[in-house]
Structures are given as structure tokens and as C-alpha cells.
Amino acid sequence: MFVLSSPSGAGKTSITRALLKQNDDLTISVSATTRPRRPGEVNGQDYYFVDKDRFSEMIAQGAFLEHAEAFGNFYGTPREPVEAALAQGRDVVFDIEWQGTQQLAEIAREDLVTVFILPPSAQALADRLHKRAQDSEETIQYRLSKAADEITHYSEYDYVVINQDFDESLARVQTILDAERLKRHRLTGLSGFVRGLKDGL
Q: How far, rounded to the nearest angstrom, does the alpha carbon of residue 66 sit from its chain's CA centroid?
């Protein structure tokens, strides 16, 4: 499980999408949310859009690996598709906040790699939120005030990438993914391969 987190506007979603395009063996965890659908978003592809009653039912049923509230809306990772992908030997990337990352760490720390994306400056973060033109000015100011708290959680992550240049940041995240996949304990079938090498000598 490969987690990318950041304050709103720092780039985690853009990096996640680019990472998926260049890794056929990577699948994304699609979160459920109670927030309204934005223009162009597709249910089941960007998010599973549900109301608060349904979200509460899913919590009660243990249907989430993690869930959290952010900006007055609820977000959660459905358990079943993630566990199915992992069982097939696929890596799963998560675009989630620090609260959800903490919950995943509590249940599966050995299978988790976490990356925190920081903006290069406070001004750059504000500029990006204005540029994407998805929120009202009031919402943007609220997101910026929340970002001050969110960035204090960087030290809870395995890796930190400062997103000064998108292509460079994407390359660094790809390098992290590649290196983590090569860790000895993640190389399934390695002991059998080494046994075969030894027998052939």
C-alpha cells in the first residue's frame, strides 16, 4: 500500500494520476465520500459518492480500512477492493490525508509506504488553490488555514517530497516506489529462485 498525502493544492492527486499512467501494475484505491461531486468527476472512478447515512452504515459494517472527516465531509477507503488487489499481487496507491494514513499504519504497517508532498512555499500553495478554480474564496482560505496543521504531520511519513517542479517530484515518487518494491521482504518467490541458483552451481 503506497500512500501519498499533502495539504490541498500541494499536488498529491496530480502526482497520483501521473504515477498510475506510468505503472500498469499499480491500481488506485477509490475512496467513498459524502462531499458533492465536482464537474467532470465520475462516480466509481474519482470517488464513490454516498450520503452521510450510507457512510455511517459502511462504518458500522466495518467496510472501511480507514475513514476521516476533512473540510466538513467524510472520506473512507473501502476495504474489499483494496484487499482483492493486494491478494492478486498488485500494489495499491492511496490519495488520502494524514488521519487515514495513521489508521492504515495501525493495521498494516509492514505493508505500508508513506510519502508526504509539501508545497515549495505558502504562496505557491495559495496560487495553486486559486488556479484550479474549484472552490469559493471562503473555502480556499479555510483550506489554507487547515494546511498549517496538516503540514505538521510530515514527520510521521517515511518520505517527504517538496513539490517545486512537478516532473522532478513525480520522478522522485517513482524512485521511492521502485526502491520499495525491491526490498527483500517484498520480493515474492525470491527464496525459491535463490534455491534454484544454488542447486545449479
A: 12
- Strand segments, DSSP code E, in the chain are 2-5, 26-28, 32-33, 48-49, 64-70, 73-78, 91-95, 113-118, 159-162
Q: What angle do CA 157, 160, 163 make, to 5 degrees?
A: 140
Model pLDDT for residues 81-131, shown as the tens digit of each residue = 999 999 998 999 999 999 999 999 999 988 999 999 999 999 988 888 888
Cα distance between residue 184 and residue 137, in whole Å: 48
The domain limits of the chain are 2-182
Give burial (CB, 10 Å; 0-12/13-18/19+) of 139.
Answer: middle
Provide the whole-model pTM: 0.88
- Say how many C-beta atoms besides its own lie within 10 A of residue 1's C-beta: 21
| Pairing relationship of beta strands 32-33 and 48-49 according to DSSP bridges | parallel
With respect to CATH, is domain 2-182 assigned 3.40.50.300?
Answer: yes
